[in-house]
Every structure is written in structure tokens, then in C-alpha cells.
Amino acid sequence: MDTRTSSYFDSEAGPGNDDAFAQALQRCVERTRAVLPRTGLRNPRVGTANNSWEYCPHGFDWVMGFFSGQLWLSSQLSGDPVFSEAARARRGQFRAVLENRRWQDHDIGFLFSLHAVADWKMYANHDAREMALESARCLLSRFREEGAYIQAWLPHGPHDREQARFASGRMIVDTMQNLALLYWAHAETGRRDFLEVAELHAATTARHLVREDGTSFHTFSFDPATGEPLRGETHQGYAHDSCWSRGQSWLLHGFAQCYAATGNPLWLDTARKVADTTEKLMGTTDVPVWDYALPADGSHPVDSSAGAVTAAGLFLLASLTEGEEAERWDRFGRRCLHGLLRDCDLTTEPQAEGLLAHGAAFVNSGKSDSMLPYGDYYFMEALMRAQGHTAFFW
Ligand code: GLY
């Protein structure tokens, strides 16, 4: 019998209880249960045209932890051991990532917060704690003192000069979600390095990736030798000076998380600024267009994953603020969730394997309009936050 941490299992729905969300959550858990025999030990990577899953290849993929996260949330909601067992059965795949330095990029936080920190926090699993601490040390080692940022990507292969030029000296907005692993490791061990690196990276992100008007660059490059700031650029967005909607959502959720972990008012102000601008950029739409520089008139793909991360971040921000401000973020989060339920919900489609349609993985590479495992994970997180759950793995 697992030891359960009560805060994960005793939380009741909060004052904002919404039947549509409660029913959607129940369908999410049932869909997760139904696909387990088909997925086996594989981790969903991207949806196909008929809404079945393609799976991560052997090795490392930045998305490989999201299905574990979905399993832990299902475990939390149902208490059914089938979910915790399925998550733990994947442990060897995560161990392999820690044993292969060439696979360890900045996304290690996504992987291990959702796979291992979760098992420690929910079930006091000691192996999971050790694994999560080891992954936090790997993330720490990616910090570049010159420039004060965590380098995002790997210069794959020693002879790939183009990739090395592209990757070195580059930070990206997505890393904000990975800082939670460092804050957790600091809280767990008291080791100051973890906190210092997370705070320095957050400060560099606020300075260089968040623009004055609250929009954002996807990436920022530094001279890798000196740390001299060079320029903001996009990789997955529409243009260097545009605002990629999933990037914007990583910032919103990420800075809210940093504030939750530290109480540093700078992170609250940055999360507010990003949320305020996101609200303006979304205008009258309820599901974000994949890049806010593009008209949201149906002529460009939407990104349901950006909508799910935005909603989860807004509920987190609402929980960290008070009065009219908290109501504003909560209302905006509910609007995003209702948009997802109206336009993207697959839990009422019996043939679909995932939860949300219309994710945009990488539009410039031809990857849009599909299910995405991170869309699914954050959809569940957002629905749970909307229902008053506060205990997560970040
Ligand atoms: N972290 C990669 C992405 O958001 O597509």
C-alpha cells in the first residue's frame, strides 16, 4: 500500500466549482485509464490525423514526462493504483536519461518534476526523491556564469558546427517551467546553489526575454565567451519580433511559479505584466492563435496547448493575488478553459486517445492541428486548479 501525502488527496473543490469542469476532469481520468492498455510503457509524443498517438522514440524527448504527469494527476483524482503503477513502470526510461549526458538539456525539469518529484510529493517515494535531486544537479550544471542563464539546447554531436553555433549562448522562455525543479531541490536540501541559479535565470529572462510591453521573444542569444547580450530571436514563433503564444504562456505560468516558490515580488510583477498583455493579445478569442502577431480570424492555426498552459498559469496567479485582481485572473482562466472545452475537447470523442485537439507543436515545420501531450497535461492541471486543487508537482 502506498503512503499518501494528505494534501494531494484530501483537497476538495474550491469556491469556483464548475460542473462543466468537474465532468471534464472525470472524462480526462477515464480517457487516461482507457488508453493505458494501448500505450503500454510508451510515452505519447504527438497526435496523428485520426487522433491516435505517435510515441517518443527510445531515449530522450522533451515531452516524455507529460504522460507521467497525467498519470499522477489521475492518481490524485481517483486514488486508483493503476495510475501510480503505470507511472512508476516508466522509471527505467527516466533513469536512462540521467545516465546519458548527451540527452540532458534544459527540459530535464519538465521530465523530472512530472515523473519523479510527483512520486516523492504524493507518495513519499525515496527513489523518486533521489532521482529528482540528481536531475536538479544536471540542470544546475547547464548554468552559464557569463550572462547568468541556463543554456537551453545541446550542440548535438561534436562535429555539427551549425547546431553548436545555434545552441551555444542561447536561452529560451520555455526554461521558466524547468526552474521549479531547482526551487524544489533547494527547499529539499537547503543547498543555496539551486535557489541562486533559479533566481539568476529568472532575472535574466525578465530582463531580456520579456519585452517592455509585456510581449516576449522566444529565445535570446549571448556571446558564449563573454556573456554579452546580443539579440532576441524566435525559433518556433512567426518572426523575431512577434509573440509566440506558447512561449508567452510558459512565461506566465513560470513567473507565477517563481513567485509561489520564493515570494520575490519581482516575479509577481512580471507574471502580472505578462498576463495583462496576454489578455490584450487574445482580444475576443478564447483559444490563442499560435502566434499573437497573426490575425485570430480562423485563417491561422490555434494552439490549444498555449491555451491550457495560459489557463493553468492564470489560476495559479489568481491563487497568489487577492480581491478584484484574483477575480480578474480567475475569470480569464475560466474563459480560456471554456474555450478549450467548446473548441478542442476530445474527451467526448470515443475514438480519440488524447484529451485536446488543435495543438500547434511547431507551425513553421508543418506541425500543427494535433493532440499534444503537454496540452493534455496542462488541460488537466488547469481544470484541477479551477476546481480548487492547489497541490501540484511544480
Ligand atoms: N518547449 C518546447 C515547446 O514548447 O514547443
TrEMBL record:
Coiled coil spans: none
Keywords noted in UniProt: Glycosidase, Hydrolase
One Pfam family this sequence matches: Glyco_hydro_88
GO biological process, one term: polysaccharide catabolic process
EC number: 3.2.1.179
Source taxon at top rank: Bacteria
SUPFAM superfamilies: Six-hairpin glycosidases
Hydrolase among keywords: yes
Molecular function GO terms recorded: chondroitin hydrolase activity
Broadest EC class assigned to this enzyme: hydrolase
Residues the record marks as active site: 107, 174
Binding site for substrate: 107, 174, 232, 234, 246, 250, 365
Family, similarity comment: Belongs to the glycosyl hydrolase 88 family.
PANTHER family registered for this protein in UniProt: HYDROLASE, PUTATIVE (AFU_ORTHOLOGUE AFUA_7G05090)-RELATED (PTHR36845:SF1)
Name listed for the protein in its UniProt record: Unsaturated glucuronyl hydrolase
Native organism: Granulosicoccus antarcticus IMCC3135
